[in-house]
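Thread: "does anyone have the structure for this chain?"

Original post by V.I.:
We have the sequence but no experimental structure in hand. Need at least a predicted one for the grant figures.
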Amino acid sequence: MKKLWSGRFQKETDRLVDDFHSSISFDCRLYRQDIQGSIAHARMLGRQGILTPEETRLIISGLEEVLADIESGRVEFSKEAEDIHMNVEQLLIAKIGEAGKKLHTARSRNDQVALDMRLYLKEEINELLGLFKELQVALLDLAEKHLTTIMPGYTHLQRAQPVTFAHHLLAYVQMFSRDMERLRDCYRRTDVLPLGAGALAGTTLPIDPHCVAQELGFSAVAENSLDAVSDRDFVVEFLAAAALVMVHLSRFGEEIVLWSSAEFGFLELDDAYSTGSSMMPQKKNPDVAELIRGKAGRVFGDLFTLLTVLKGLPLAYNKDLQEDKEALFDAVDTVKKCLLIFKPLLATLQVNTAKMARAARESFTNATDLADYLTGKGVPFRDAHRVVGEIVYYCLQENKTLEELTLEEYQKFSPAIKEDVYQFINIERCVRARRALGGPSPDEVRAAIARAREKIERVK
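Reply from O.Q.:
Generated one for you, tokens below.
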């Protein structure tokens, strides 16, 4: 098959080169964006008088037929045509003849592929934002059920202070909110039309990129033709945002793995989102959470792939940029799959509220409150901290909790401790008392859930 660019070549490309060079095996998924961009380009060429009305009509109707053929499965893409752009063009020429050869007027594959990727990524960002919204709602629904479910909060994976399960879930609501903000910000810089830049220096023909931008829904047109065809910052930004999404999903996955173990026993995964062992009949494995944790690494690799591709490229277009697509597609697919499965995984969790509460009560998570109590009695905090440390050590020796000490035992360590200490170190009171913005008090968490729901509804 003669290449559409073969005019200055006297030999056919080697079959190994065809195979090595071809990107149709993966960029075929851009067919819809490619045809969408081509229709807008043809319509603009017609409006500008570069194509005749009949040529414009033929090209647009032909492209619509090609799209229908692809979507009905009647098209087998050709490796010899290299990529989705040349495949679509050859299919068009086969349908409408000579007029199809005029589609590429005032255009290069360099600005064409940049357009396709921007159209694709805009769509995918919007879809991911929709999935995030559903996940946020699932988190808030679960949090609402556990406003008073007390559990230990951790630092260094050691029980630290009492919080609620709802408060813990809201930490992820905040993480995912930032993820959504980053995606929206990335969308803004993706929303720039590169078409019209040509191969690198634009065209001498009287095109109208603003008209194409309006038809395709872009808010801006690239202001430098060299940058328009060589820029992949928007893909890097997306991959960086996707990597952080996976960090957050992985951290959550890790906690689910830990908390569903017998050692914690805080959660039990639904059978539909667990697997068994081929050898050990008693096992119930948190494979979904583990896979999410594991898949984070591949998205990190996608980001590093593109950073490495870009770091040494001179302007403008270089074939290296073909390597951007598989990394982008893989990251999009991976994040999407993880978000899709995380929502039902959360919605079907069984929470062992009794075990969570017991873990908070048995681990001196109210020790800081005891120090605050002494501070309120006029004891300097550093002295209060030392005294409480000594009390905790005593409890460990006597196998007692702070609540189980008698007032006489308490007063051996500090005469400032009075009968009201028991009310002050009550676990429920410890949680309720943390009423500051962002704290675990049920009232504050309830207000935080309301704010989060309002934000979700407000931001489209």
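V.I.: this helps a lot. The first helix runs from residue 15 to 21.
O.Q.: and Residues 359-458 form a domain with the Ribonucleotide Reductase Protein R1; domain 1 fold (CATH 1.10.40.30).
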